[in-house]
Amino acid sequence: NYSDPEEDFSWEPLFDGDGLNTTTYTTAPLDEYDKYYRLKATCSATSDVSYSTYVFVPMFEPPVVSLVSNPANALICSSGSVELSVTGSDIDQYLWSPGTNLTPNVNASTVMVSPPSTRSYSVTATNASGCTATEGITVRVELNPTATTTASPTTICEDGTVVLTTVAAPVPAIDYSNPVVRSANSNSINLAIPDATNELFSTTPGAVVNSALSVSGGPYAPQAITVHISTTHPANSDLEFWLQGPANCGTMEISTRNGGNIGNYSNARFTAPAGVLPSPPVGSTNMSGSYRAEGNLSTGINIPGVGNPGPLSGCPVNGTWTLYMRDVAAPFLGSSAGTLTNWQIHISEPGSGNYTHTVTGGTGVGTASSTVYSGTSNSTGQIIMSNITPGVNRSFIVTTTAPSGCTTTSSTGANITIHPLPVVTCPGPSSICVLDAAYTLEGGLPVDGTYSGNGVSAGMFDPAAAGPGVHTITYSYTNVNNCTNTCSFDITVIPDTDGDGLCAPEDDCPTVPGQVGSTCDANPGPGFTLGQLNGSCNCIGVTCTTDLSLDITMPTAGLLPVWELRDRTNDVLVQSGGGTFGNGGTPNQQLTCLPDGRFYLVITGMPAGGRYVLRTAGNPGIRLIDNRVAAGGGNQVVEFTNSPAALSSNGPVQLPVGPTELLFTSCDKYFWKKGEFIVVNEDADVAAVWVPSGSNAVQSSTTGYDFWFYDPNGGYSFIRQRRHNVSDGFGNVGSSRTCHMQVNNWAAANWIPSQQRLNVRVRAVVNNVPKNWGPACRFVLDETLALCPPTWLMDVPGNPFISCNVTRAYNTQSINRIYARPVTGATKYRFSFNNAELSTPIVREVTTYYLTLGWGGGTAPILQNGQTYDVTVQAFVNGAYCVVGQTCSVTICNNPPCNQFNGGQQNSAIDTPVSNASLNMWPNPNRGDQLFISISAIEEGVTTVSMDLFDLSGKRMVARTIATQGGNLNTVVDLNGDLAAGMYLVQFTAGDRTYTQRLVIQP
Predict the structure, then answer these.
(1) Residue 977: how many CB atoms within 10 A of its CB?
(2) Phi, psi angle pair for 641, to nearest 5°
(3) HSE (side-chain half, CA atoms, 13 Å) at 418
(4) Does the reported pTM lie above 0.85?
(5) Are strands 265-272 and 287-292 parallel, antiparallel or unpaired?
(6) Which string of DSSP letters, residue by residue, matches 520-550?
(7) Could you give the maximum distance between any two Cα atoms of the chain, in Å?
(8) Does 641 fall in a domain?
(9) pLDDT per residue as tens digits for the range 552-600
């Protein structure tokens, strides 16, 4: 600040700068070298010059600064944050700008910024020398996408699917994680870079020159810019380079006076933002390699002659980019002019991406399919949800991610209902013979579902249609929510390997027609030798076990029809006959025999009006088929098929005859009506399976009785199964409930036809194993006749008032009354007596169902001692007499002994009756211990006598077979105290003769 009017002062730099005629001097921008200056004083009068000592100005390097962001691309979504950290060296202080939306403070080395929109941040670092360096970064803020999600349908079943449709709002599909590089190349050029000039100690920078390249890109701001520079230059350290964006939208400093005093730019690459690149070197002879640009995208720079329009961060990629350059120093001697031989620019801009949609939450738990995309940039996505846990108010949340990486969530809302599938169970596996009839499938639960599979039609399985093999049957059930579930089970159809109409396991001889015990020809060849298959399925000759009589009654004399008895299992002809002359009007007995087994009868050539009965031999024998109205031509009982095959009819001739028989009052009744109960005598084995006091649910479904109704002429054939677990409309009286079967209480398709003469037979079934069929009874359903039914004298075995085929004294004692079967609703009864001695019947009408004998001649003609009368009874119902019932005989015997066997005897052409036989039975009344029996003059050839004892209900209590000796029977029967006190009826059968007496058991 010194001044002297006689002296002039000026500063002289040692190397550069302009001296100023002032005592105060401000230099031009200094480079990295230390500087020396001195003050020159010139006397204005003498021009003498003097100098001060040199002033030393040391040069200090600015700190090295670089910015690192986390995330690395400094890209955040709305309401997000990014961490900015300063890395470098020689830094003492930090100053961030702007200071808004920044924590913890502007002086921290690491800050967290949360700008609401895209914003540039810079940090100025200061070292101990007071030198500063500034680095900038642009934090890009992308909007979170918006999306909506809908579900369809909103109500499904557990095995159904829900389609989630998510639609994102249409925003630019910018993907910063997948940048696209746009490039331009000047190729080989020769652009002169004017050299700076020196005048004395003063340097003038060379002129600024430029080179422009056109970049084809998008409207997006650049993410990164790399500029390649190649020059020839003897001293590259005095070159400066800048970059200008399209239409002067922004500027950036690339490199200023780097390199050495000697060297070129050889494809030197400068990149902003810096990342982890090194700073441009100082002192290197050549500039070659990759460096960080000295400027950054978020900080503009003044270009001489151009100005500073702002940073490049706001420029579009598309457009003309211009490289500016100049030489700022000159050597002491010569020149250092350079040439730009090539430059390139590579700009990274955001790529285009797609949306993604992913199920990430909600109250619904299920399996998501792969997303199916559509729309611009996959803005729409569909996801199929399956295996969803049942429940109501279910929802799903879908996360939508934009190409920028920003996300949003959308929910279906709690409006989805998932109905559980019904719990469906199937029956276990089963097997059936291929020959069995189609049957209704059952056992699938809940009921009312549907069955499908091979051989299934309308809920029925047909083994023939399915064919042999294992068939998987599917049961489907749909509940009230229209949800369907299924289960499956196997039915094995067993083939008939030997063609005998049976399958395993019923066919115990699967390679030979028939079963163990089946009839066969024991001597193959001409003729027939009766045999049976033994346990090894070999045919062994056998003898008959049961004598049979086929009683054929012809309307007139002529040739008898031809008959055959064939084995049911293999159709082998066992016995045959007929075709010979027969009498008319009386039975023609065809005697034959059979071994134990199952057979069927075929009759051909029966004349119209004929009839026949097949029974066991003896009188009366056990009926097997009773055809009182045989059809002309052929006759054969139609078999009924059931499943399992063991429960099919399997032949009407089964030997030995089964023990199960109808009650006396249910046999041969010809005026049945719907709803009445037909009753069978109880089988002990069936009764043993009954659960006392148990409900239907615990009773057996495989134990009970089978009632077979068939027409002997063919046609109608039906087996009604009665089992313990079904009441059939009868009260729960214990095991005997199952003995009662209600007529036509089943599907109408199989109802018993009206006024058709049928047979009915019963067999016991225990755990689906049937016994043989019992005796045959006649059966007629006649609703009209049942309205006013016929009646006759009491003939029920065991009834204390039995009056049919009896002897009575003609007096008024009650013991000699005769009783009719009572008829419900009858108000009086008409008894008619007739025999060959009477010109007109004797008729008595009474208001009771019994008639007291011994009336006087003034009332009606009296009954004569020693005579036998045919007696009929009619009941008076609803103002009219019903039709006459069966005829019974009553013998009047006032002074015993009388011939007490005149009534009730039955003669047969098989044996000749004897008239002087007698029966004695004592003591009577009896204490229930021992009963003495004596029968004399038994007809010749009778070797056994059968004894049956019945209670008052007709139930057989005792059955014995007793051997005779010399035409007489004298024996003692042990009753063993098994009979309760009361009245019983004892019936003896000896050949053709039947003896009946009452027995009273007293305590």
Answers:
(1) 10
(2) -100, 135
(3) 21
(4) no
(5) parallel
(6) EESS-SSS--EEEE-TTS-EEE---SEEEEE
(7) 208
(8) no
(9) 999 999 999 999 999 888 888 888 899 999 999 889 989 888 989 999 9
